[in-house]
Write a structure and sequence with these properties.
Strand content of chain A: 5-15%
Order of helices and strands of chain B: HHHHHHHHHHH
Number of strands of chain A: 3
Number of strands of chain B: 0
Radius of gyration of chain B: 19 Å
Number of helices of chain B: 11
Largest sheet of chain B: none
Strand content of chain B: under 5%
Helix content of chain A: 55-70%
Shape of chain A: globular
Helix content of chain B: over 70%
Oligomer: heterodimer
Largest interface: A-B, 16 and 26 residues
Distance between the termini of chain A: 35 Å
Shape of chain B: globular
Number of helices of chain A: 4
């Protein structure tokens, strides 16, 4: 069961959605895999970073997707700087 | 214009073409999505190879097509007006590259409209086999046509004045040189380099590449105008 936090997408240009821990976990795993991190290590890093992000979300009823991305990248950077860089490159590669 | 000068112009035009980054960005995305999807190294290699081949094929097709159209409309003797128009296009595109090839954002966000960028991103993510990858390579060249048309037109104008054998050499030189950065990135990805290292290099050097591309177009336009338009006018006098 996820937190009851609304995620505002694209500064309100798209409809909000409920926070999903699975989606966050998958995006972190993807960033780690893109820099050829072994699957087990990617899963472990994703679990650790997700826990930190969820702790940050505890007292917030609504956040933007951009905020989540910033906080996740910050926590991911302490575990895997290359993966954090690729995580931040989402939608700014092309 | 002698053969050596002609091939030099074609080579410079191809170098300018090679400094444009859309195909490299799409290749980076395609590789990233393939690696994330846990495809085998062999499959990643097949997908990236097909993409690079698609880019090469479309580049050759575009150059050949423009050359044939110019040959049909103007014959093998290019008029001063055609040279002037081509040089004007080079100047215009060169300044456009300086002004807005890269958006003023982090990363390597290009000028292309966001819906097209999203489309290319989604297609790169959804690509599962070599034929789709080949098609993506074709599409990425077409998507950047507005900028690459300038070096292609100038190369075509030079090509139509050459003999058939040298035309083939010219097309080959253009295709190989214009794809050099793409081939380098392809080799780096295939040899196991991290995408983050490649992307960091691109982000760090993007404004330099932008300046070089714009400057190259202006220099090529100036040189061609002086040698072909002013040179023939003075020669005629």
């Amino acid at each position: 069961m996820g937190l009851a936090v609304d995620i505002v997408k694209q500064n309100g240009a798209r409809s909000s959605e409920q926070f999903s821990q699975e989606k966050l976990h998958a995006s972190i795993v993807a960033a780690c895999l893109s820099v050829r991190t072994p699957v087990g290590q990617a899963e472990a890093i994703a679990h650790a970073v997700s826990t930190s992000v969820i702790a940050w979300l505890e007292d917030k009823p609504e956040v933007t997707s951009h905020d989540i991305r910033l906080v996740t990248a910050k926590h991911l950077h302490s575990h895997h700087p290359d993966a954090a860089y690729m995580y931040q490159q989402y939608k700014i590669t092309i | 214009m002698d053969v050596a000068s002609s091939l030099a112009i074609i080579t410079l035009a191809a170098l300018i073409h090679s400094s444009f980054q859309l195909s490299v960005s799409v290749l980076t995305l395609l590789s990233g999505h393939s690696i994330i999807a846990k495809h085998s190294q062999a499959k990643v290699a097949r997908l990236t190879t097909s993409f690079v081949i698609g880019v090469g094929v479309m580049t050759i097709l575009l150059l050949s097509f423009v050359s044939i159209v110019l040959l049909d409309t103007m014959g093998s003797k290019t008029s001063d007006i055609a040279w002037s128009m081509a040089c004007g296009l080079l100047f215009g595109v060169g300044i456009a590259v300086w002004l807005f090839y890269y958006r003023r954002e982090k990363g390597t966000v290009l000028w292309i409209p966001r819906p097209i960028a999203s489309y290319l991103n989604n297609r790169a993510k959804a690509t599962k086999d070599s034929s789709e990858s080949f098609g993506l390579g074709l599409t990425s060249v077409i998507s950047e046509l507005i900028f690459i048309i300038a070096p292609i037109i100038i190369s075509a104008l030079v090509l139509v004045q050459l003999d058939a054998g040298w035309q083939l050499v010219g097309i080959g030189i253009y295709a190989v040189v214009s794809m050099l950065p793409l081939v380098i990135v392809w080799v780096l990805i295939g040899s196991g380099h991290k995408l983050s290292d490649i992307q960091k290099w691109r982000e760090t050097n993007k404004y330099f590449m932008q300046f070089v591309a714009g400057s190259g177009l202006l220099i090529l336009g100036f040189y061609t105008y002086v040698t072909e338009v002013i040179g023939s006018t003075i020669g005629g006098i």
